């Protein structure tokens, strides 16, 4: 988990959102890592996990990926959970819960958080993805400190 958190820290240092993910094999060896690239690439789908799954699906088949795990600094959003599911990865281990992220980001338009746990996304599919987390949540949470503006109103014409 600390390797994924380190990738998230690097992502933030590069001007991106503070998220990182790694792919490990069944022996625990790190195979790939990816960081968030939303800002530097100008691509709203450039989340750490989707970037990681693009790399993983090009390099490994689903049978192999089913025995691997994604370690991610923050619980995968619905989009990232879908990417992990379709890549065929068998396990997800996350640092900070999506709900805890929402507490930090609030209405910051940089991160319109869906309050939808990844386990709920995986439960709707026909293949099993085991989920472990939160793990080292305080360490994962610390990378986000001061990054988000939770009082921003993404819709200034609307009250609330």
UniProtKB/TrEMBL annotation:
Q: Which UniProt keywords apply?
A: Metal-binding, Zinc
> What Pfam families does this protein map onto?
dCMP_cyt_deam_1
Identify the residues that the record assigns to the CMP/dCMP-type deaminase domain, covering every copy.
1-105
PROSITE patterns in alphabetical order: CYT_DCMP_DEAMINASES_1, CYT_DCMP_DEAMINASES_2
What InterPro entries would the database entry show? APOBEC/CMP_deaminase_Zn-bd (IPR016192), CMP_dCMP_dom (IPR002125), Cytidine_deaminase-like (IPR016193)
GO MF annotation terms: hydrolase activity; zinc ion binding
Which PANTHER family does this UniProt record tie to the protein? Answer: CYTOSINE DEAMINASE FAMILY MEMBER, TRNA(ADENINE(34)) DEAMINASE, CHLOROPLASTIC
Tell me the protein's name: Nucleoside deaminase
Q: What is the lineage of its organism?
A: Bacteria, Bacillati, Bacillota, Clostridia, Eubacteriales
């Amino acid at each position: 988990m600390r390797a994924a958190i380190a990738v998230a820290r690097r992502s933030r240092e590069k001007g991106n959102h503070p998220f990182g993910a790694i792919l490990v094999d069944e022996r625990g060896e790190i195979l790939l890592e990816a960081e968030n690239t939303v800002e530097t690439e100008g691509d709203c789908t450039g989340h750490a996990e989707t970037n990681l799954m693009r790399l993983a699906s090009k390099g490994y088949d689903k049978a192999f990926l089913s025995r691997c795990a994604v370690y991610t600094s923050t619980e995968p959003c619905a989009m990232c959970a879908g990417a992990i599911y379709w890549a065929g990865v068998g396990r997800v281990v996350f640092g900070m819960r999506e709900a805890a992220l929402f507490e930090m980001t609030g209405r910051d338009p940089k991160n319109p958080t869906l309050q939808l746990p990844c386990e709920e996304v995986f439960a709707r599919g026909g293949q099993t993805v085991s989920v472990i987390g939160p793990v080292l949540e305080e360490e994962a949470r610390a990378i986000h400190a001061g990054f988000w503006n939770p009082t921003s109103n993404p819709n200034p014409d609307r009250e609330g």
